[in-house]
## 1
Amino acid sequence: MNSAIDSSVKAGLVVENKDGFTSIPAAAGKAVAQVPGVGASSEIRLSQAKVAGVSGTPDVSGVDPATLPSVYKVDWKKGSDATLQRLDGNNVIVSQSWSKSKHKKVGQQVQITTQSGNHATYTIIGTYKNNVHFLGDLAVSNATLARDFKVTEDQFVMFGLKPGANEDQVQGQASHILAAQFPNAQADTKAGFKKKQTDWIGQITAFFYVLLSLAVIVSLFGIVNTLVLAIYERTRELGLLRAVGMSKRQVRRIVRYESVITALIGAILGTVLGVFFAVIISRPLAGEGFKLSFPVGTLVILLILAGLAGVLAAITPARRASKLNVLEALAYE
């Protein structure tokens, strides 16, 4: 996601609602545009619609064709920045993923029912790769969105910075203006915007780490039970090994090895399956600009932790195995 934002967003400052979802008044962007150091700006607006003949309610973005290329790099599949200039009240551009899934091609017309109840017919004039879903499934001009969708508020306002401008200073002045006039809006540098857009990923990751911890705890009990049962079934074998000279330390080592091997087998199988499903699940997201990346360091650390968990699980069974009475073990049936 970070890579998709870096390759698409050219703006140095982004204004949006503090909750990250609700729109903000158009006047908020105009106020920030007066801050010294702020260059070109472009508003991105958002609505939804129903397209005749297809399922779902795709997101429809409103863009300013004249200023969008200065702050956002559209990843065109069919078309170019010149295509934006043809975004009048009769044309629309669509994301490549939406056009493929709905079997809509350049040159075809789409009949739309807007959230305001209006009906409109647009001709598809281009397709783009919808990186991180900034532009929605369909995109029209802001003038068209205001006319047919009755949407005049902004979802994002992206600002370029003039040469030599300090982004932190500009962000501070913009935040001061917004706090005084539009307290529901906030201004972020590109780095801050990127962090805000990816914070939810960290929250989801933390949730899965909690589930992973619970799974590890259950697995430890499973390994302990398995080892205890194995020692019980191999009582005579362990007694024979002790009788021929194996030390208590060596018995404990054998049990620990079995525990670590068991833990690593589970960890390796889990890693392989995780990577396999990650590849499968990530393929549909490639059309949205997401890139598959494997956290090799994290995976290695988890494998090491799995081995340590195996050592921890072996403590009690290893002590029990080393304390077996040799004579009783040899006589055990």
Note: Residues 11 and 71 are 5 Å apart (CA to CA).
## 2
Amino acid sequence: MAERLSGISVFFPCYNDAGSIAEVVRRAQETLPGVAETWDITVVDDGSADSSVQVLEALQPEFPLQIVRHEQNRGYGAALRSGFEAGSKEFLFYTDGDGQYDPRELPLLVAQMRDGIGLVNGYKLNRADAFYRKFTGGTYEWMARAVFGIRIKDVDCDFRLVRTEYLRRVPLTFESGAIGLELVHSLQRAGCRMAEAPVHHYPRLHGRSEFFSLHHVTNLISDVARFWWQLRRGHRRPAARVEQSAPEKPVA
């Protein structure tokens, strides 16, 4: 049998994902017994205006599921921060609730979570998006490497497994999509060792992405610029150094 983690908290940010969130959660529930001894699942609903909450409540009789609700839409980063706060196990995994990543590929990340590794980040084998999203995504990746010194291949891939202890040591402040850059840069700056694993990216089959709305794009650009300025001026509180020697002992 493949090695398993001692415990993992899984969460999904959800915003108007009524058409996909139930299948995403079910796939996670089916996968988790093979990768962890204990687990919990949380969905953070970021003020959805559709029936996402009702869909999630209908799942609760099937298996334990925690629902964290934002009364208003606060942004992707705010949803992630709520999910991070809800994590109680030694490891934490998250991906999006829109179904563009498949939780059944979580074992690919677990296989890379060895002693001394603090973060395993997915990278897209293919990007199943329109050309303009591929272009902007490529530009964002270039900027992350050239301006912020990010060393992983795909900082825009929100398919991540992280040691919760390490996560607690880094300052996370953004409520926009810039939180992914903030998270990886902060962990990298704190000395966290990282590994990567290839994952598939699928077309969005339900609803539409809010990424390119004026509000979200404006907030993202503003936060990235503010992050750069904070780092340049030394106004960013440094993260606590992470210990690379704390071993995880998988169970066969």
Note: The chain has a mean pLDDT of 87.
## 3
Amino acid sequence: MAIDPRAEKAFGSQAEDYERHRPGWPAEAVRRALGRLGLDAESEVIDLAAGTGKLTRELVPLVRRVIAVEPLADMRRALATTVPGAETLDGTAESIPLPDESVDGVFAGEAFHWFATREAVAEIARVVRSGGGLVLLWNMHDFTDSPWAGELFAVLGDIGAPAPGQFERHRKERWGDAFESSAFGPLEEFSVLHEQRTDVPGLVAHAFTWSHMRVIDEPRRTELRRELLSAMERACPSSQEVVIRYRTQVYWARRT
């Protein structure tokens, strides 16, 4: 399998929006993951399905070599510009363009649910040296105590409801079968609190980067964007930052 068509439709021509309005990754989560795998400043890692390089840029200062593998050309162009310290390659989880046992670790941020198959896990294991490992990360929204959340979902209604399982994409129950009989040991996990700070237009733009929002026809998207901007301006004081809160969920496993 090359590229999940849903991912291609959702993000294929939206690199600028993704870069500007999606959250980054907490440095604490990345450092802890590297430590759990025993990786350090001399290690070599892959950022798989790297997008515009939001995770890549956190890895670059911490290890010797980062290879960002990304199938979508506009994402690779953005990544090469924003994270020049990484190598950028065209590839997918099922076809990583590197030799066997060529890296110490593979990281996948907000991506594994798109390619959670035994074939992909086997390909990831192929390029990881024995004793290295795999790290999977997701930024999960925490709308608790967000004064604008109720109004946001009231405006979006059913049309803005996530695709089935979208809010559960980080759960091991969804994709754990992909690791059966694999070269990886048991998956372990931890989580880190995280925040994205923006303004009202940024909050609205962020909502429209959600993959289930990108499949809406453009006329309806335009109408919804206008309605949502008006509602968020009422819900959020214009003089204050808008804080989008997350729990960054991290899974890691060593290659045997």
Note: Residues 125 and 183 are 6 Å apart (CA to CA).
